[in-house]
Amino acid sequence: MRKVLILWIAAIAMAMTMQAAEHVYTWGTEFQNYKSQMPSSDFTTADGLFRFTTEKAQGTSGPQFDEDSKAGLLLRLYADNTLQIESLKGEKITAITFVIGGNGHYKLADLTPSTGEMDEPYLGKDATDTFREYRLFWKGETKDVTFTVGHECQYGIDCAEQGKTGQAGTCMTKQVIVTTADEQALDEVTNDDPSSRKVIYNGQVYILRVGNTYTLTGTEIK
């Protein structure tokens, strides 16, 4: 009986898949009423999936939303500011892309995440190849991550192209793309024995077999 149960658990594991979803937030359309909220740079996305919380932290200037003549509304983070991104619906965040626009290209710094890691940045142009559109990439697996803006410019035009050292860093995004992965199981998976089936109760997966209930590790629930 235990062998059959183990084989059946394996079948369930094979049926489990990671459902990835990409959520794109452009500040000019996502947060049009930022001036009426205090502090204006903290918000929950309109779809209710994520909370963004900014802090001045050890910085000299504090975070703010502000219009840019070229890139539209920018979320401006300055040297040593922090940005916390929380998943509110249980999905794990696996990737975040920070799209830098307008004045954000001049003193762009690196970001230090509380978990996960940063990938190599993209320091090029947009899809039309007409204007600069830098991107910073994070990857990991968490429901809550905090980023700290670098103290000095690292990738921006001022430091990388014009050689101006010691410039205070910034991270000014016009858009953030959040990728999530949520482990989803099939509603019903059975083996050759019709007396076995899987159920989900309060978010937990259980096995019902011949009138008994088991966890996925084979422990009987009494």
Q: Would you write up a description of this structure?
A:
The protein has helices spanning about 1-15, 25-30, 155-160, and strands spanning about 15-25, 45, 50-55, 65-70, 70-80, 80-85, 90-100, 110-115, 115-120, 135-140, 145-150, 170-185, 195-200, 205-210, 210-215, 220. It is mainly β. The strands form 3 sheets. Strands 1, 4, 5, 7, 9, 10 and 12 form a 7-stranded antiparallel beta sheet that branches. A 5-stranded antiparallel beta sheet has the order 2-3-6-11-8, with no helix packed on it. Strands 13-14-15-16 form a 4-stranded antiparallel beta sheet, with helices on one face. A hairpin with a 5-residue loop joins strand 2 (about 45) and strand 3. The longest helix has 14 residues, at about 1-15. The radius of gyration is 23 Å and the shape is elongated.
Report how far apart the termini are: 18 Å
Find the count of extended strands (DSSP E, 2+ residues): 16
Structural class designation? mainly beta
**Which bin fits the share of residues in helices?**
under 10%
Largest sheet, in brief, is: 7 strands, antiparallel
Using only C-alpha atoms, the radius of gyration works out to: 23 Å
- Indicate the multimeric state: single chain
Features of the shown structure:
222 residues, 16 strands, 44% strand, disordered N terminus, 3 helices, 5-stranded antiparallel sheet, 7-stranded antiparallel sheet, mainly beta
Write the layout of secondary structure elements.
Elements lengths: L1 H14 L1 E10 H4 L12 E2 L5 E6 L8 E5 L3 E7 L3 E6 L4 E9 L10 E3 L3 E2 L15 E9 L1 E6 L7 H4 L9 E15 L11 E6 L2 E6 L2 E3 L5 E2 L1
Antiparallel strand pairs: 1-12, 2-3, 3-6, 4-5, 5-12, 6-11, 7-10, 7-12, 8-11, 9-10, 13-14, 14-15, 15-16
